[in-house]
UniProtKB/TrEMBL annotation:
<dbReference type="InterPro" id="IPR036273">
    <property type="entry name" value="CRAL/TRIO_N_dom_sf"/>
</dbReference>
<protein>
    <recommendedName>
        <fullName>CRAL-TRIO domain-containing protein</fullName>
    </recommendedName>
</protein>
<dbReference type="InterPro" id="IPR001251">
    <property type="entry name" value="CRAL-TRIO_dom"/>
</dbReference>
<dbReference type="InterPro" id="IPR011074">
    <property type="entry name" value="CRAL/TRIO_N_dom"/>
</dbReference>
<feature type="region of interest" description="Disordered">
    <location>
        <begin position="1"/>
        <end position="21"/>
    </location>
</feature>
<feature type="domain" description="CRAL-TRIO">
    <location>
        <begin position="89"/>
        <end position="251"/>
    </location>
</feature>
<dbReference type="Pfam" id="PF00650">
    <property type="entry name" value="CRAL_TRIO"/>
</dbReference>
<dbReference type="InterPro" id="IPR036865">
    <property type="entry name" value="CRAL-TRIO_dom_sf"/>
</dbReference>
<feature type="compositionally biased region" description="Basic and acidic residues">
    <location>
        <begin position="1"/>
        <end position="18"/>
    </location>
</feature>
Length: 255
């Protein structure tokens, strides 16, 4: 009998209940403790797998108390933001119409590639609450697209043609808060490309709100090194054509 392909009954049952087993012994133990603690306060804990609990733990450097606080807030937020389990496209029709977020292809690690186009976001023509729902719709769509076993995605933030009319500090901070507090450890890497000098004014305001784990994943790419830098992590066949690859951009609602 091949032990690699055959699991003990208890292990198989645990994986069926809580998702793929976590190999690291310390993480597995802390996930179990955190699950038990959170389940006493919110029965919805039973609905999530161990990998989600581990992501909240990792976002708080495996501190069970801090991770549990963040996770329980997320469960409350989810009931409020996603009462039906999803965001209807009719609720975010304006934001979708601008085709400001596209998703196509995977990087060399199998992570979905998202392209956010900064100059297609115009806060003066939008609604802050709709934009928050659009951010959640986008993150839910990305997570649903992930291959089995993959937990992260990569984003190319394209600021070509970005100017003050596109600047939305409140919207950026709301999106950042949603990503960090409700979808922790989902972002694998963020490439910021074509960033104009004027953007740095906004960046200085946003930067202090970015947590240490997220800061490590952000890379500003010089224009002259754009395609070579992206090709280090993304095959040409999977790279969007506007960056020298083969794939056309696909608005996220069409994926």
């Amino acid at each position: 009998m091949d032990n690699k392909e055959t699991k003990e009954p208890a292990a198989a049952a645990a994986e069926k209940d809580n998702g793929p087993l976590i190999e690291d012994e310390i993480e597995r133990s802390k996930v179990g403790i955190m699950r038990a603690l959170c389940d006493r306060q919110d029965p919805a804990t039973k609905e999530v797998d161990d990998l989600m609990i581990r992501r909240f733990l990792r976002a708080r450097d495996l501190d069970i108390e801090k991770a549990s606080t963040l996770f329980l807030k997320y469960l409350t937020w989810k009931r409020s933001m996603l009462p039906k389990g999803h965001i209807a496209e009719s609720e975010i029709a304006n934001d979708l119409s601008h085709k400001k977020v596209c998703m196509q292809g995977h990087d060399k690690k199998g992570r979905p590639i998202v392209v956010a186009i900064g100059n297609r976001h115009n806060p003066s023509k939008g609604n802050p609450e709709e934009f928050k729902r659009f951010v959640v719709y986008t993150l839910e769509k990305i997570c649903a697209r992930m291959p089995r076993g993959e937990e992260k995605f990569v984003t190319i933030g394209d600021l070509q043609g970005w100017g003050y009319s596109h600047c939305d500090i409140r919207g950026y901070l709301a999106a950042l808060s949603t990503l960090q507090d409700c979808y922790p450890e989902r972002l694998g890497k963020l490439y910021i490309v074509h960033a104009p000098y004027v953007f740095m004014t906004a960046w200085k305001v946003i930067y202090p709100f970015i947590d240490a784990n997220t800061k490590k994943k952000i890379v500003f790419v010089e224009n002259k090194k754009l395609t070579p830098t992206l090709l280090q992590d993304i095959d040409e066949s999977q790279l969007p054509d506007i960056y020298g690859g083969k794939l056309p951009l696909v608005p996220i609602q069409e994926t």
